[in-house]
Amino acid sequence: MGTQWAVPYICFPLLYIAALVVITGAIHHIEFKFDELKDLWRAILVTVFSIGVWAVAYVLNETHEEIRWLQVSTRCVLLVVGSFLVVAFFSVSFSQPLVSVMSLTKKESFNMKTMGEALGIPDSGLLSQNDPTLDVDPNEPLDKLLLNKRFRLSFMQFADSCLAGESVHFYNEVQQLEKIPVNDPVKRIYMVRHIIEKYISTGAPMEVNISHRTRQEILTTLDLAHPDLFKNAVNELLQLMNMNLAKDYWSSMYFLKFKEEAAMRSVDHELEQVNGWNFSPRLSSVHCPDDPFYQDHISRDPPSHDAYSSYSRR
Amino acid sequence: MLDTLVQNMGLLCSRHKRGNQANTEENAHAAEIERRIEQETKAEKHIQKLLLLGAGESGKSTIFKQIKLLFQTGFDERELQSYTSVIHANVYQTIKILHDGAKELALSEAGSSKYGLSADNKEIGEKLSEIGGRLDYPRLTEELVQDIQQIWKDPAIQETYARGNELQVPDCADYFMENLQRLSETNYIPTKEDVLHARVRTTGVVEIQFSPVGENKKSGEVYRLFDVGGQRNERRKWIHLFEGVTAVIFCAAISEYDQTLFEDENKNRMMETKELFEWVLKQKCFEKTSFMLFLNKFDIFEKKVSKVPLNVCEWFKDYQPVATGKQEVEHAYEFVKKKFEELYYQNVTCDHQDRVFKIYRTTALDQKLVKKTFKLVDETLRRRNLFEAGLL
């Protein structure tokens, strides 16, 4: 290839960078929420750097075709820079959806169970052995009790069993959202959008029972990263759980099991026989998993079968 | 010698017994469980499944509570006491809704000063509204009651209450405001009446088993009644209960014709009930299910109809009032009833011809009326069973 082609070749990237700079300059007066402008400048810098590396390599390649080691080393440098860029891209949080899509198509085992896990929120998975147990006092307010993970899980199972699980699941995911630091708005927004899609928008797979006003407030918000976005909804739902589910929970099998486990954990003594049957007025004849309401799946267990089988297992 | 032999044998036996004791006990235990399961499944076949369906706040749970009171043990003192916090929450929430509603109305109708609270009450209002937004409410005290009473009497709040249909004011507001003094007593235990009035939004599914026992003889039928939440998000759960249903008790609050939905304030409640009833009627699983339509909240309807014309609702557009007073109420009720009847027959195809459809006028708060209605329902269902068995 003649040297007369080298000039237009180099001109293209230069034009590209110039265009980027001009556009960024044109919009610099807009006040972005998350400093996108700074990101843009940074991106231009990275582009300039990589194009510079490429241009140098290209020119050296063209001019010194006879030096072998130069040919090899320029190509090596290009490769290394390229791989650095790829690694950098995947470590930035905005590439998260792409990563999850890729891992989904590749292998099932990469499938994350919850959005919290996918976003790498600490402590978002299921229970671990060293979570603290607690002595549950039914007189304590529910919102305090639910902060304990073990209790929350037991309560969630109970709520699922009476087809009212969405409130607890929602509470759980909002708790995970709270764990994301406020200075990581990108991550927060992913989580918030996930929660809205799953629980808030009309017709969502696990839509929660909240008032029109609260729902509208969330759906029309201008600031998705606002720390109190779900406060009203959580309040309403805690109220709902408190009035509805809490009372029945204390007389359910799930609470008995929970207490038993707690006793087993604190003292490793032989657990006393709990002669409890399911006194709760909640569902006994209909058992169906409530993850997110498998409508076609109606299992017809005999009534109170749960109570019986757990009884006989002891 | 024979004696010793017998003794030895006895010893042998007992020793053998002791060794196996644990085992046999376990076996007996297992057998006992087996037997109980079998018994339950057998009994299960005779149990009739009833579903309470209807839109939000149509009175399903009130009917449910009534059944508990009428045909079961009712509420013991602990249960009654657990309603104290619910009732107090109802009071605080009502005040919050009215206070915030008045503020909004004052803003949107800047011209009129109708919704402006007096200076004193503004402060009290803010305080109570703050309490109403909290998660755990304080117990009602004498002091708080005085504040609440004062603000309740404020003309602006009363004016707002008159427009309660645009806000989501619970129906129990009036009742609890009248009884405030009693609610705040230190040794207050909710009465049956209070519990029936208390408003709790149901979520999930609740069930109860009962057998309507008459004054002199048992009816013999055992029913299992399911209560569900009525808001849109709750309805997707209903489908889990739709199999093998003897009868659906569909509650429609006929007083809601000028109100909007809790979950969607752009939608008239009566229109929602109409669509919902149509949807339920069309369900494939209900081909042989009887339908008991409870036109509920007649007490509120009675009071409302003279103030708010029926034709504010799109469905009742062609309603023409004819008279005044009691006659008018009857006329309006008959009109609504006819509308529902028409709706039913529009949605019935030849597949459903042998199902029973009855309409009842109810006030879920009225214990005697509910008892009477349930006796009628019970009778209808038993007659139907006999008919199915070919005895009638």
Number of domains of chain B: 2
Order of helices and strands of chain A: HHHHHHHHHHHHH
Uncertain residue segments of chain A: 106-111, 269-277, 285-314
Helical residue percent band of chain A: 55-70%
Largest interface: A-B, 45 and 43 residues
The description of the largest β-sheet of chain B is: 6 strands, mixed
The overall average pLDDT of chain B, rounded, is 85
Termini of chain B, distance in Å? 74 Å
Text of the CATH class of the largest domain in chain B: Alpha Beta
Oligomer: heterodimer
Strand order of the largest sheet of chain B: 2-3-1-4-5-6
Overall shape of chain B: it is: globular
Estimated share of beta-strand residues of chain A:
under 5%
For the sheet with most strands of chain A, the description reads:
none
End-to-end Cα distance of chain A: 84 Å
Helix-strand sequence of chain B: HEHHHHHHHHEEHEHEHHEH
Uncertain runs of chain B with pLDDT below 50, 5 residues or more? 9-15
CATH fold naming of the largest domain in chain B: Rossmann fold
Protein name (chain B): Guanine nucleotide-binding protein alpha subunit
Main location (chain B): membrane
Subunit structure (chain B): G proteins are composed of 3 units; alpha, beta and gamma. The alpha chain contains the guanine nucleotide binding site.
Binding site for Mg(2+) (chain B): 61, 202
